[in-house]
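Protocol step 4 of 5: obtain the predicted structure for the target chain.
Materials: sequence only (see below). No template structures provided, no constraints applied. The aim of this step is simply to have a reference model before the mutagenesis design in step 5. Sequence pasted as it appears in the construct record:
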Amino acid sequence: MNGGNDDGAGVLLAAAGTRVPDGLAGELAALGHAVGSLEAPPARPVAGVLAAAPGGLEAAEGILRDWRLRGLAAVCLAEGGDAAFLSALADLRPAALLTLPVSRPVLAVALDGAASQCGEDVGERLAVLKSLMDAAVNPIYVQDTAGHYIGVNRAFAAFLGVTIESAQGLTAAAIFSDEVGDYLAERDQEILAQGGVQQFEVALEDASGRERHLVFHRARFEDAGGIPQGIVGVATDVTDSKRVEKDLRDEQEVLRRILAGIRAGIFIIDPRTQVVEDVNPMAEELCGRAREELVGKRCGDIVWTDPEGRPLPTCSVLAERNILNEEMRLTRPDGRILPVIKTVVTAKRRGDLRLFEIVFDVSERKALERQLAVAQKLESIGELAAGIAHEINTPTQYIGDNLHFLSTAFDGVSKALAKVEAVARRLAEGGGAAAALAAIEAARVEADVDFLLDEAPRALEQSVEGVARVTAIVSAMKKFSHPGGEEKTAVDLNAAVENTVTVAKNEWKYTSDVILELDRTLPPVYCHPGDFNQVILNILVNAAHAVAEKVKGTTDKGRIVIRTEADGAAFKLSVADSGIGISAENRRKIFDPFFTTKEVGKGTGQGLAITHNIVVTKHGGSIDFESEPGKGSTFVVRVPFGSPPPARSAPGELS
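Step 4 output (structure tokens):
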């Protein structure tokens, strides 16, 4: 350090517990050093001279610590004090410790010695830093302002597939692709200009050609004057963690799709606050609410009831036990009630205990169960009706045949009686037997022969007509109750309509006139006969009840018009009634299970739900309606005419 300095290097002067001795700055300047203070340091300080008195020991410790961290060689000048004070200063480990006054040659030797010791300290520190860098598992590097690597650790060299020595002087553009090199050069200019800490992620190829994702943390380093000298960076290989994150996302997506596929609604609830933390899209669909309307709200805002409609306990009670496949009812804001199966389990989510409610909509299953129950009931009724019809049919045939015989016999007897009476009158008149004529006339009056001859044929005719009607009803019952097979068969739906109207006559005959407008040219429809009989019956009975409600308490009768026609490739059945109609608030719920506007005991809310399922699901058709309150409703059913099912191969026959 002896001699002049023209590169801005200089010495810091400071004092602790005293002031800087007079002439000290001049002595340092005479030795060729640029001199500055803590408030106005030289451009590039390399050493410091501290004057310390006994009262400034604590301040001296802070100044020396700061200089040591900055790599400055420190010379301490003690002003007075005893041996204890000098020992305390020596414990602060300055490069040189002198007592005032001090001569220029002694000061020069002390500064040169301090500089030499500082160089050795810096070398030791650099060796320690290099060892630390090499011990690090993350790639670490140092660049100059031109982007040349001036220092790399073993991890970085291994990543590049080069030696530490061969990496010196290379740039990113020389090692990586042009695209990566240009990107890193742009980021170099950013941090050199702006300073601070820089973080970014980039995909690179390692020495084996595998793509690796690295996250860089970089900072600019400067000289003592604050001028940027380069960049130090640490890279973290996040390839494996990104792969794990991707696998986790993929698994979450698979789980999400599975839950969506099985249509499971998921509610995640904090049992302590009873607040809904998260829901999946299916839960939104089940509740009829958006996610924003559910998350953050108390779970009690969701209305759960048991199958009988009794309110269920809150989720705080559910936290005490797991629930497995319990049947419940979920009430939506629009008033619809969904039958559901709920399972509730407790598990930890992000370290905290949570309730997981897993909910399945079982409306379709319930509809199938209801349809099966009704089908089984109808099948039983059908079998009973068929048996009764068969039993009624035999005596009815006897009665009918006997009535036909009696009608014919009475006609013959009456004719024979007329002839006998004529002969008897002629004989009595010819013989002048006035008494005989009087006896004949008295016998006629007593037997009321004229009345019998007039009314008996009518009675027999009406009896024959009544037996014919009984026969028609029995025939209709037999046809209606025939369930058909599992496969669709060709059915004359006009005949089905007529049979159903006959069977259900008791539902409509007192309140309605049924008018049939049937297209007799329609081809048969391939359908399930028993199911379609049920469709016609349900719609007809509903129409009859709607008309009965309107004409109740009057002698008026309403109208039900049943029309069949072709609608393109579909069979179209329309049933129009002059009943009370359907209110606007009930129209969207008309096909919902359990929904009915009829009084208790008269409606179950299943008829139109079953009808909708038969028409839409089983036959691929549609059912719609138009209604005007107070004037009536028209239900329209469309089903494709269909075609015969493919013929089955005979046993052993190759198809």
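Step 4 remarks: The mean pLDDT is 80. Residues 302 and 331 are 8 Å apart (CA to CA).
Proceed to step 5.
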